[in-house]
């Protein structure tokens, strides 16, 4: 890739007069040796999987094998159908769709890790709900996925996207940043605004620990995806309105690395601390071991 930082990504996109998504498609094709058409088709297939996961999570039984989670997305949708949501319909749909994909993951369904399985609901939640809301084509959404991929590429190579390495800030936080930056790009924001959206989003999740109850990617992972989708929408709107990340986004990524590296092991996907070690968390773990 011809960029190694978010600033370089924004500058290169602006210099070439293209969106971040279109820039990334060309860069990815050069990197892989495949044609842009081949890369686009592959990403289109990924987006179809995302849409299918949203649909499945809203219409099928997503009860996990543990029995701990399932059908919360459907509960949120039913609530929104019955009365006005505090969030409003747009954000409510994004939240429900994110929950849906995460519940499909927990029930052993097919999802796309973006960037991980534990954070796989955020980008589909934002993308599918916004596609419905704004009437965007699948082609437009695929370019958005390339934009998200470009942002994720920089984060992964300068920090981490694994909860075992850097806590949930690395998984859910990175996904929120990817979704926010890509949404800004898709809505016609400048490359600089897209990168500000990433920084704004990441700052809101710094220090978020990874504390899966019972060691399963269910509690609190699924609800964090729902909240994450809403945060991504907010970060994109802030950036499009002209709100800037006063701390440059690349520096925020470095802070995520610093914070994650200093987290105790018990707060990095080991189920040794946080919510996993509450009385209820311990009871759930003991019950699971008896099965």
From TrEMBL:
The pathway it acts in is: Carbohydrate biosynthesis; gluconeogenesis
Give the family per the record: Belongs to the iron-sulfur dependent L-serine dehydratase family.
NCBIfam families, alphabetized: sda_alpha
Q: What is this protein called?
A: L-serine dehydratase
Q: Which GO terms describe its molecular function?
A: 4 iron, 4 sulfur cluster binding; L-serine ammonia-lyase activity; metal ion binding
- Which cofactors are required for activity? [4Fe-4S] cluster
Species, as recorded: Paenibacillus phyllosphaerae
Any idea of its EC number?
Answer: 4.3.1.17
Q: Does the keyword field hold Metal-binding?
A: yes
């Amino acid at each position: 890739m011809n960029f190694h930082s978010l600033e370089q990504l924004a500058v290169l996109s602006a210099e070439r007069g293209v969106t971040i998504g279109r820039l990334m498609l060309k860069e990815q094709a050069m990197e892989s040796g495949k044609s842009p058409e081949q890369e686009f088709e592959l990403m289109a297939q990924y987006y179809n999987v995302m849409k299918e996961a949203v649909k499945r999570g809203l219409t099928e039984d997503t009860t996990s094998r543990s029995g701990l989670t399932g059908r919360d997305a459907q509960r949120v949708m039913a609530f929104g159908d019955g009365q006005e949501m505090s969030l409003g319909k747009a954000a409510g749909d994004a939240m429900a769709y994110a929950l849906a994909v995460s519940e499909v993951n927990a029930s052993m369904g097919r999802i796309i890790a973006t960037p991980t399985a534990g954070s796989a609901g955020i980008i589909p939640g934002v993308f599918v709900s916004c596609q419905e809301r704004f009437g965007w084509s699948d082609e437009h959404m695929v370019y958005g996925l390339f934009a998200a991929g470009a942002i994720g590429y920089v984060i992964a190579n300068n920090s981490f996207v694994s909860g075992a390495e850097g806590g949930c800030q690395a998984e859910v936080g990175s996904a929120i940043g990817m979704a926010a930056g890509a949404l800004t790009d898709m809505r016609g924001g400048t490359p600089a605004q897209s990168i500000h959206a990433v920084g704004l989003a990441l700052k809101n999740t710094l220090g978020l620990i990874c504390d899966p109850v019972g060691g399963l990617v269910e509690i609190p992972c699924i609800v964090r995806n729902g909240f994450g989708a809403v945060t991504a929408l907010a970060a994109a709107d802030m950036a499009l309105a002209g709100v800037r990340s006063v701390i440059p986004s690349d520096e925020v990524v470095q802070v995520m690395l610093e914070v994650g590296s200093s987290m105790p092991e018990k707060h990095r996907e080991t189920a040794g601390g946080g919510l996993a070690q509450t009385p209820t968390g311990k009871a759930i773990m003991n019950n699971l071991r008896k099965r």
